[in-house]
Each structure stands twice: as C-alpha cells, then as structure tokens.
Amino acid sequence: MRAYRPRSGRLVQQEEPMPEPRPGEVLVRVRAVSLNYRDLLILNGDHFAPGSGALIPVSDAAGEVAAVGEGVTRFGAGDRVINTFHPDWIAGRMPDTAVGYGNGRDGWLAEYRAVPEHALVALPDSLSFEQGATLPCAAVTAWTSLDGVRPGDVVLTLGTGGVSLFAVQLAKARGARVVSTTSSADKAAKLAGLGADTVIDYAAVPDWGQAVLDTTGGRGADRIVEVGGPGTFAQSVVAAGTHHAEIALVGFVGRSGPAVDFMDLFRSGATLRKIWVGSREDTEDLLRWLDVWPIEPVIDGVHSFEDAEAAFRRFESRENFGKVVIAVG
Ligand SMILES: NC(=O)c1ccc[n+]([C@@H]2O[C@H](COP(=O)([O-])OP(=O)(O)OC[C@H]3O[C@@H](n4cnc5c(N)ncnc54)[C@H](OP(=O)(O)O)[C@@H]3O)[C@@H](O)[C@H]2O)c1
C-alpha cells in the first residue's frame, strides 16, 4: 500500500507493507483526508510538539472498513467510518496521555490504516467520504467551542479557516447571530453567503473589537471562537464587552500581536475555556446533530492522492475558502 511520509519539509510517497489489524483493531481503507493548520505546522517543523518527523501526516480521515481483528464488535467489513481526533479520548476529561496523529503516531495520509475500534465512529450515509473527512478536527472543535450557545446569542468567529467556517454554520443552525471577521472582500461575500450576519474586515479595521461592540449596540459577543491567539486576543477581549462572555481558546493563527490589556480582560468578566478538539462522545453528538440538521461542509477543492503536496501548498496559500481535501482511493 502507498503512504506518504515527510522528508525535509516535503511529502514523499512510498510503498509500505499492508497493515494487519491486531485483536481489537479495524483495518480502514482510507477514502479521503482533509488538512488542518496543525498538519501544515507539523510538516513545516513549526508545531510546538513536532514529533519524530517521520510519521505519516494528517489527523482527519474517512474510509470504509476493509477487515476487522479478533474481538472487534463495533464495526464490520464495509462500514463507513471517520476517525476521532484523539484516538483514546472516549468521553469525560481528556486523558493526559493523548497523542496526536502525525506527531505522536502515524496519521492518515495512506491507503490503509489499522487502528483500535474505539478510535472510529460511524459515518452517516448522508455524508460523502470527502465531507466526512472534514469533520474530526475542525467541525468537532467548532462544535465544542459553541457548547451552550443559545438562540439569539452573538457568536464571533475570526477568519475563514476550517474551524471558523464550521463555527459560522453551526452557530447559525443554533439560532445565533453571527459576527465574523476576514481579510478580503471576496471572502466577506462568501461568509455572508454562509449566513454570517455581519462581516468585518480585520485588515482594514484593526480595532475590530470596537466594531463588534458597535454592531451589537455596545453589548459585544456572547461567545468568541478564538482561533487567532496572540494576533487577535486583545481585540477579542474588547469584543467581549462587559457582560461575562465566554471565549473559547482554540488557536493561534495570528502568531504575534499587541499585549492584552489586563483591565479590559478584568472588566469584561469573560470566562476563558481551553478547547482540545473534543472526545469521541463529542464527535458522536455532532454526527447525530448533522443527521437531523444537515450542514454541508465547505470544501475548497478535492486533490488527488498523487498530488498531495499540491493540496498542502494550496492550504498554505490561505487562498482557500473551505477545507482542502485529498481523495485517497
Ligand atoms: N484547540 C483546538 O482544539 C484546536 C482545534 C483545531 C484547530 N486549532 C487551532 O485553531 C487555529 C485555526 O485552525 P484551522 O485549521 O481552522 O486554521 P486554517 O484553516 O489554517 O485557518 C487559516 C485562516 O486563519 C485566518 N487568519 C489568519 N490570521 C488571522 C488573524 N490575524 N485574524 C483572523 N483570522 C486570521 C485566515 O482567514 P482569512 O483568510 O479570512 O483572513 C486564514 O485563511 C489554528 O491555530 C489551529 O492550530 C485548535
């Protein structure tokens, strides 16, 4: 079977032995994978936990069960599945031992992978393999970031990355009012098409936190899906107003920025909640929701397995709007 491994920041395709499912494991024929910010960081050696550097990359996949090992009860041959982002986090608190695909263990950019049955969930028939592959990291992160959002709440999303687009779609489906930021008129129009009620150009309006206050009559956002980190956090605190909003601490795509004004944070009364994608239970909850409330994942394009490198470069360009997907087989 064919698999990719990184070498000096590039992807190298090679022939590898077909994995054999051990007791309790499922052999998955991978049909599609999608890319996330972390996959690019790991490949480029920029991730804070880069791993060994020789592991098969990519955390998110969809496929079908090719064979099962002894004792497997949850799946049978032919079942459609996606992986969970944290293979050993079933429910409750995240275990301290969690290690990621691509930096702690082999990931999914391969034709076949054998993984424990507890690390997979069933993919509903309503979703294609390409759509299913977009869900394990970005969609589950958006889902857990929005936990507890009520109809009428104002949800602030930042930029048009994978997490943020799912957050727009899921927040709208929950009846929230969505305020989004982005950096181009073209992406602003696409965000509006997805349902964002207000779009602010963060490049043209550097104090966009105040713009969020202005557009909400001075109240600010109730929930902020904070993916920008050092580049956006100070403005997110302004956007939180003073009414005890919740800031879901997700990411750090804005690598540097101004210091946070402590008194702004203190006055805001905001609660900070760190997000770690989610558990298998969170993933199953999301899939149940999607079965009754279909949301079409936004896909920028589907690249061929042969041209996986081009998919990474498209993703790196930040010109994509939606998930970059690779069809595997
Ligand atoms: N904690 C967790 O559980 C978790 C889970 C998933 C992801 N993450 C993290 O969350 C972040 C987003 O991940 P992703 O996969 O969605 O990323 P992505 O798809 O690579 O997002 C890229 C987008 O980020 C936006 N961006 C860049 N700088 C920005 C800024 N200063 N302000 C606002 N937007 C900015 C840009 O949007 P525009 O082109 O519209 O400007 C860009 O297109 C990453 O840091 C990732 O590591 C964390």
**What separation lies between the terminal Cα atoms?**
11 Å
Q: Uncertain segments of ≥5 residues (pLDDT<50)?
A: none
Coarse morphology = globular
Given helix and strand content, the structural type is alpha/beta
Count helical runs.
Answer: 10
Oligomer: single chain
If you average the pLDDT, what whole number results?
96
What is the CATH superfamily label of the largest domain? Medium-chain alcohol dehydrogenases, catalytic domain
CATH secondary-structure class of the largest domain:
Alpha Beta
Radius of gyration: 20 Å
Fold-level CATH name of the largest domain: Quinone Oxidoreductase, Chain A, domain 1
Helix content estimate: 25-40%
Number of extended strands: 15
CATH architecture of the largest domain: Alpha-Beta Complex
| Beta-strand content | 15-25%
Structural domain tally: 2
Q: In this structure, how is the largest beta sheet organized?
A: 7 strands, mixed
Q: What string gives the helices and strands in order?
A: EEEHEEEEHHEHEHEHEHEHEHEHE
- Which small molecules are bound? NADP nicotinamide-adenine-dinucleotide phosphate
